[in-house]
Amino acid sequence: MSRSITIRDVAAEAGVSLQTVSRVINNGPNVRPEVKDRVNAAVARLGYTPSLAARRMGGSRSFLLLALNDRDRTIDGWKSGEGTDWVDQMLMGGMLECAKHGYRMIFELIDTHSSHVEREVLGAISALHPDGIILTPPHSDNDQITELLAKQGLPFARIGSQIEGPGFAIAMDDRAAAHAATEHLLDLGHRRVGFITGSDEYALSAARTDGYREALEARGLFDPDLVAPGDFTYDTAIRAMQSLLARANPPTAVVASNDQTALAALKCANDAGLAVPDAFSIVSFDDTPIVRFSHPPLTAIRQPIAPMTAAAASALMRAKAGEADIPEQQILPFDLIARASTAPPRG
Amino acid sequence: MSRSITIRDVAAEAGVSLQTVSRVINNGPNVRPEVKDRVNAAVARLGYTPSLAARRMGGSRSFLLLALNDRDRTIDGWKSGEGTDWVDQMLMGGMLECAKHGYRMIFELIDTHSSHVEREVLGAISALHPDGIILTPPHSDNDQITELLAKQGLPFARIGSQIEGPGFAIAMDDRAAAHAATEHLLDLGHRRVGFITGSDEYALSAARTDGYREALEARGLFDPDLVAPGDFTYDTAIRAMQSLLARANPPTAVVASNDQTALAALKCANDAGLAVPDAFSIVSFDDTPIVRFSHPPLTAIRQPIAPMTAAAASALMRAKAGEADIPEQQILPFDLIARASTAPPRG
DNA sequence: GTGAAAGCGCTAACAC
DNA sequence: GTGTTAGCGCTTTCAC
User: Fold this and answer.
1) Is the pLDDT of residue A1 over 70?
2) Who among B2, B52, B107 is closest to A128 (CB)?
């Protein structure tokens, strides 16, 4: 119950005014080194940590960043226990970056499809007054949200967004990644490489399809018949894969748009008597725990989720601090992790 | 940049005083239904959401709950990508419960071993002034932390703690779960059942060992030689399992204290030419994604992490609201999920 | 049942 | 370089 110590206590302890303490805390100018030291000593002695709420009330910063994720997808992922570690990687990248600068990242879920997205977002903003907002797919490309934030003058970052727009766009090069995944298979000797697309709701789905197509076109091997529509779900991918295998001239390998899709492809291949990787190769577009522990472990594109979130947080904090020269767009490197699901085609 | 709307705007819109609006927001007494409706209408019309920071400044609540997790373990888990979904389940349980009551849960990492635990915890408290704190293992049993919080008069919950102490203790019945896991194997016909313990750092490790021993003793089958010390890590478990298999009279089944331990046991059994489950059975004490996707999928105890966190959040919020009759201790039910890693012993 | 006044812990703006 | 003043948006206390 001990009354918490405030800036007032520190001021008294150091024999200076409140304002001087505030200046020291905020690394403000116009404080003599000697006084600064005295204040810092008092802060240390008293174990003082400024109240975020009070700083927000008085000043123009809340030291809060708000990460908005899709409600249904996130909860479904948690409930299914399928092991997607998107949220974990986001937390790791975002929280740790925030902590470096005395910020906190608050994680929140909102309905994308809801007619009251606007109300939900505004509610969170009014309650928290965050200094910036981190948007993740599919929110990153949601005009309703981005326009709202732009209108509010609230800095925001769009993770995984390929498209132009307001805010900081931070993404992996999905086109290049799909290109690399396809090249990986072509380099192994495959000539008929299929692709199961992601949901149209995500702009990056198109980018991935493009990268795939370009890699094949560059070698004159593109066949539109080998592209099957998916939506990132297992069930849809099962049907997509089945249709691919039912082609007159089926593929010998496939690039899957995410982990669920890749797992579905693996299942179908097995069901069709095609051993992976000897008779069929698969590249996943997510490197989640479950593809690392599947049998065989899947070759996968690793998205830099933690680095992207850290970059987003960093950009927002620097923006709030008034820094200039923060790049509007950042493309972070991906990795192609070769595991046991890809091999040269048979025969 | 639009100035956000405050309680003042609502008061003007509804033609009442600030205080009346505050009463309505907080479900306070002494407001005529008619006036209440008018205020609520104004709130809805304006899309007003009170500022958490201001509420904290003026009043005695911050509407924030702080969940403290072990820094090293959490980050290691995230980096390894081993698919532990502790954090996810905590978020699901805690966040959703908080959201119901206008609260937020802030997730934070602190060093257990650090000599400055105290400073870290006090810092987070001073910065956030949370209405309650949720402790997870191994913090739940950390006297340094619990005593500090008790002294501060801050309500807190200890998740997964078996031991007596201040705060709300919310746990699964680890003893009963270990008992059930062992019974499951005995019922299948096993007579020599091994156990790989967890780290001494966690009080629940002892509870699990007890439950295991009691189940065997009840049938006169307990053999101390079949208990091998582990610490929840894969490498240590490998050695523990190897020593178990090297016994003159080795076990035909084993109960593993967590998922990494179970995976290590599986690996060792395979290496020793013991097919699971035909020649050897394994029960895991975590039901994380990777044991669900291992080969074979493992029979496991499922800890109710989300329900425990939700119960913790609920207890803290109710405590802050001045409710009485909140149980000091809650034991939540576990599940034993039978999968393909357990079968009757051979011969 | 309702309203007015004071103050929470800080920072912004300005004075010195 | 440093201190003083005002005020952020609420809730608390107390008066009516």
Assistant:
1) no
2) B52
